[in-house]
Amino acid sequence: MNTQFWLVQAFNGVSYGALLFLVGAGLSLIFGVMRIVNLSHGSYFLLGGYVALSVIATTGSWALSIPVAAIAIAMVGLVMERLFLRPEGQFVTIRDAMLALGIALIFRLWIGRVFPLMLPGATGAFIQAAVVVVILAIPVFLILRRISAVAIETDTLRQVLLTVGFAFLFQQAALDIWGGNNMDINPPPLLTQSVVFGGLFLPAYRVFMIAMAVIIGIVLWLVMEKTRMGAVVRATVDDAQMARGIGIDTNRVSMFIFALGAGMAALGGVIGGAFLGIYPGLDFEMLPLAFAVVIIGGMGSLGGAAIGALLVGLADNFGKALFPEISYFTLYAPMVLILAIKPTGLFGRE
Amino acid sequence: MTSTLRQRLTPLLAGTCIALGLGMAPAGAETLTIGFLAPMTGGFAQVGQDMVNGFQLYLDQHDNKLGGMDVKFIVEDEQAKSDLAVTKAKKLVLQDGAQMFIGGLLASTGYALAPVSTETKTIYISSVPAADDLTQRQFDKYPYFIRTSWTSSQPHQPLGQWACDQGYKKVVAIAADYAFGYEVVGGFQKVFEDCGGKVIQKIWPPLGTKDFGPYIPTMKADADAIFSLMVGPMSLQFPKQLRGAGIKKPIIGGGTSYDEFALPFMSDEVIGDVSALHYSAAIETPKNEAFVKAYRAKYSKVPSYYAENNYTTAEWIDETIKKSGGKWPGAEAFIKTMQGIKLDSVRGPLVMDDMRNPIENIYIKKVEKKKMFGYDKDELWNTVIKTYPNVSQFWTYGKETFLKQPVYSKDFPPCKYCD
Amino acid sequence: MTTQTIKIVAVAIAMVVLALLVPRSGNFVVLLATRAMTFAILAMSLDILLGFTGLASLGQAAYFGMGAYLAAILVAKYHVGLGWDFWLVVVLGILCGAALAAFFGLFAMRATGTYFLMITLALGQCIWGLAYRWSSMTGGDNGLNLGARPDFGLNLSDPIVYFYLVFAFFGASLLLLYLLVRSPFGLTLMGIRERELRMQILGYNTWLHKYVAFIIAGAFGGLSGVLWAYTNGIVTPETVVLTTSVDALLMTVLGGAGTLIGGAIGAAIVFGLREYLSTLVPWWQYVLGAIYVMTILYLPTGLMGIPARVRQYLRSNREQAKKKLVSVPS
Predict the structure, then answer these.
(1) What stretches of B95-224 show up as alpha helix (H) in DSSP?
(2) Does A153 touch chain B (CB under 8 A)?
(3) What would the mean pLDDT of B298-322 be, rounded to a whole number?
(4) Which of A102, A168, A331 lies closest to C288 in CB terms?
(5) Is B225 helix (H, G, I), strand (E, B) or coil?
(6) How confident is the model at residue A325, as a pLDDT?
(7) Angle at CA of residue B308, ends B378 and B55, nearest 5°
């Protein structure tokens, strides 16, 4: 175990940490602003990767897939936040309508097992299905309108469980849309080579991951620290009630942050997809790691997420290299200790 | 009165049906109820789908009949959980009256299902789970268990011989850290070292590792080749990251590292990598070519070993029922008959050994980019470069000698040459 | 008082119906009911924390796994627990679950709210890591096989006999936990759930109360784990994964937190969908996901809360009607 070994391991740990930062930073911001523990964050990561695969398959452009995936999943996050996590006004109606359609769809699947097909051809079948769904959805919608949904903004546990429910739904939907094969994103050839630096072989892709994380981290930091918008977000993290009191629209802040967080997770999915692969189950594999980052760094702190990601990346890397027998322990045991000593994480605030 | 009426009407009805070309099961024809356990939702859903597709293809090609019996094929989603597999197996036996259940994916599921077969006196055909001991040291516990696939170490014992024959002296092994990985590496190491080679290091990344960053730098530099055993998504990332780190040594892989389940999604850096398994989609026999084409036409995928093993399982059942006179002979007799069947299958000649595991060809395969079977695109194929014919799970050691040693594990064979 | 009596009578009737009906409805149903009841004990143990103390734990699988692995290791490695010593295994399982909770509680009790959720998640993952990696003890990924069930005059290999045994454990757990939450101790817990500070000012040692509740939940978690091991005959790391903890949490919320029996109802529904509906249709996961989302959005008090919601709805309707009557100008 010479210097070279330590250098390469440190480099690997840092590059893994860079990927974790992309996932963890969004989760941390969402928690800071909305106090929501978002268990569907891993799904955004996976969905981002899948969208990128579709973009690459149709256009052949890897570079294009990065922004498309990030924006598409940010939209998914936006819809989820507006309709389900913080619904207000006409969004409640839209949410009820969407749920009614979903339930009607399930009913139709059930009816479809016994109900004969009356219209001919694929188009006919589709029209028939659509008509049946809409007809079924109307009474469900009317019933849902009568039952007033109970606000979940104040109930952490129900928010957590709601995001779990969505994680399950996303998982099944991804399986039905993209299939269950283990896939891989192939970046341009330039990034698959290795850079030789002082006798060390450094895979170019890892260098790229670090660069991406640093650039995004700096941009985010500048936005948070130097712009008005950033100041508004920080005020909301510190004290949402007070922020509302001085006229900040915290509702819009939370919408913006949730979409940003989802988009960053998707970005991580595209970048990480070339490094980890894209396959069903990746969502629930990334989730505990993202949480480890946020827990160690402290929720709601960008700097904390960076430090947390670096620590988790290095702990994971050196733990596996030096103590392979207890490699999961080296990840979760420090987490328990940090939480026991400082429940809010290293940089978290109450 | 009613019965006489029915008796009188039956031939009439049957006659009408035949005349109309509808076809109808002859009166008194037995149905063969086959329960099939595979993950259909969750992370392993596609593997489960491959398994079902293989079996279903055979049924479709044979009018949904095996050995003349009509087949009721019931697929149950075991969600890759062994406790649920047990529940679903019992459901198949107790509620659906299945005469046999097939499948399961993970080795742990195999271990969980085998006792169910003993308990319910129902046949369990393991068409995928490869845990060595089920047909070795625990054989006596499971009289209704039969395997149509492979044991984990079976293809890798010949691979050890092959690696030795290539003149490799020192090999570093990197393998997924669980029982399947131990058995694969154990088989390879035993034969390789008996032939004079040396495994100088064993690295065990946890199952599901995708970032090999921590492991690649620890590999000893003086190895001639790298033996890898990867499963699922690991298969895609390991070769990519190894080459990315500037290591150009030859890779010899365990079966699942380069199986057709993962191969189509790999990129060109895997060309030239060698692996061993009891099946390759690129076996150049008419029977395999027909199978690959039929499978691909129907499911637009090259068949993986999961698909082929289940296709062949269906064929094996078909032949067994035929030999039993086209009717269900009862579980004991079925096992006995099935053990005596010699099959000329898609993957080559098959025969059961006396511990109910197939003796089969093992193929040493090299990844090449080429056109095959008339498909017009250049694709990655596992070209067979050497065939070890009729390999038993005991390799050349003989049953008695082999069973005297413990099951392959992390510590057996011991790593004598790891500093 | 009266609604409470009605509830108790209803639960008692449901239990009798369950005991009479299930054994007559075919072997698969018996098996499913056995599995669901085993898990129901875990869900009820979690309800002590979630519903009565206000602590949402994401690590209840740890104690479940502790019990299950204890039973599996004793049976598979030491051949203890296949006769009368079955009861010894049960007692040991309860004690080990409690001991593990006593140890983990020292860490977990320092946090509250979301941070409690996180720290229990991390603790649960530690146990999973051990189950998965400590292969010499746990059999690693292959898991451990128990083989036949115990036979001590009562032959537990008979599914019906075993069903009644688990039923008895389930009934006893329900009764004990009910007595617990009705006791002064349980009332104190509920006081802590509502407002911890007030209880502190009143002179209660709230930390100790919560800690004891945590240990009790661990003990019942251990019990359900032991039964789970015997039910399935195999224990694998899959028993201890994060989703087991999430499942227990969802079942409790689905049925209604703070009602005890709600956990059992949630368990019955989740097992019914996942294991029975999945034998009928391939899209069962959408149904499960939809039920979760709907329950969380529209039924904050779970399925057990439906009667109250209906009553409330009717009352508000009546009041509106009254208002209309009053406001009609004469």
Answers:
(1) 107-120, 156-165, 179-194
(2) no
(3) 95
(4) A168
(5) strand
(6) 67
(7) 125
Q: What is the pLDDT, as a whole number, of residue B165?
A: 95
Whether residues C293 and A325 touch (CB distance < 8 A) is answered with no
Residue C117 is nearest to which of A160, A166, A284, comparing CB atoms? A160
Which residues of chain C lie closer than 8 angstroms to B112, CB-CB? 143, 145, 232-234, 236
| Domains annotated on chain B, with CATH | 11-129+288-346 (3.40.50.2300), 156-283+362-404 (3.40.50.2300)
Q: For the CA atoms of C20, C25, C29, C35, what is the dihedral angle to 10 degrees?
A: 10
Whether A43 and chain B come into contact, CB under 8 Å, resolves to no
DSSP one-letter code for B265: G
For A307-321, what is each residue's pLDDT tens digit? Answer: 999 998 988 888 887
Residue of chain A whose Cα is closest to the Cα of C108: A340
At the topology level, CATH places domain A3-87+155-341 in: ABC transporter involved in vitamin B12 uptake, BtuC (1.10.3470)
| pLDDT over 60 at B2, yes or no | no
Tell me the residue type at C62: A
Tell me: pLDDT of B8 over 60: no
Q: Which residue has the tokens 């296709």?
A: B311
State the pTM of this model.
0.87
- Tell me which residue of B71, B70, B88 sits closest to B79, measured CA to CA: B88
B146 and B123 Cβ atoms separated by less than 8 Å: yes
Q: Are strands B69-77 and B342-345 parallel, antiparallel or unpaired?
A: unpaired
Give me the mean pLDDT over the A238-244 stretch.
82
- Chain C touched by A9 (CB under 8 Å): no
CB A226 within 8 A of CB A218: no
pLDDT above 60 for B22 = no
Concatenated DSSP letters for A278-318?
Answer: B-TTHHHHHHHHHHHHHHHH-TT-HHHHHHHHHHHHHHHHH
Any bridge partners for residue C183, and if so which? none
List the beta strands (DSSP E) in B27-111: 31-38, 65-66, 69-77, 100-103
At residue B320, does pLDDT exceed 70? yes
CA nearest to C260, candidates C4, C2, C1, C59: C4
CA-nearest of A18, A15, A21, A72 to A49 is A72
Rounded to the nearest angstrom, the gap between the alpha carbon of residue A83 and the centroid of all alpha carbons in its chain is 17
CB-based contact, B231 to chain A, within 8 Å? no
Q: Please list, in sequence order, all residues whose beta carbon lies within 8 angstroms of the beta carbon of residue B91, skipping any fewer than 6 positions away.
A: B76, C28, C31, C279
Domains in chain C: ranges and CATH? 27-298 (1.10.3470)
What does each C-alpha distance from A183 to A98, B27, B40, B381, C119 come to in angstroms?
31, 50, 18, 17, 34
Q: Which residues contact A348 (CB under 8 A, 6 or more apart)?
A: A297, A298, A299, A300, A301, A304, A342
Gap between the Cα atoms of C253 and B177, Å rounded: 37
Cis peptide before B413 (omega within 30 of 0): yes
Structure token pair of residue B124: 């369990």
Work out the average pLDDT over C256-263: 89
Widest Cα–Cα separation across chain B? 89
Judge whether residue B7 has pLDDT over 60.
no
DSSP H helices in chain C? 2-21, 27-50, 61-78, 86-108, 113-133, 135-138, 159-182, 184-194, 196-201, 206-232, 242-255, 261-271, 278-280, 284-298, 306-327
Pairing mode, strands A194-197 and A200-203 = antiparallel
What is d(CA B34, CA B71) in angstroms, rounded to the nearest whole number? Answer: 7
- Interval C64-73 mean pLDDT: 94
